[in-house]
Amino acid sequence: MATRMAPTISPDTEFFWNGLRDNKLLIQRCGGCGALRHPPRPMCPHCRSLDWEAIESTGRGTVYSFVMPHQPRVPFFDYPYVVALVELEEGIRLVSNLTDIDPADVTVGMAVEIYYQSFDNELVLHQFRPSA
């Protein structure tokens, strides 16, 4: 498998990527209204506050939706693979890979849990697998 491309890290997303390196899934919580948000951004879309803090997610959730890309083939993925939109227990959704399951067995609503995968270029990504 080829090395994964590193994400673009900005001042607004740096906390998220640093959290993954520490095996923590961090979510922004607005300091004004308490709303959770992902992806990270500087301003709350609900109250427009610029005040926020990072909270740690449990890393548990359910598959909200999923796809199995076939084309174009990207060199750093083993095919077939599953891209899932995971709804976390905290109520936000994020996109990730779903592993350790036959793609034919993936269902909407199935329980999943996070794990962290390290790559050669010091990149750490969140991945999900079926809950034990």
TrEMBL record:
Residues in domain ChsH2 C-terminal OB-fold? 56-115
Coiled coil region boundaries: none
- Annotated InterPro entries: ChsH2_C, ChsH2_Znr, NA-bd_OB-fold, Thioester_dehydratase-like
The cross-references to SUPFAM superfamilies, in alphabetical order and at most eight, read:
Nucleic acid-binding proteins
Domain named ChsH2 rubredoxin-like zinc ribbon: residues: 17-53
Q: Which Pfam families match?
A: OB_ChsH2_C, zf-ChsH2
> Could you name the domain of life of the organism this protein comes from?
Bacteria
Q: What is this protein called?
A: Nucleic acid-binding protein
Record lineage: Bacteria, Bacillati, Actinomycetota, Actinomycetes, Mycobacteriales
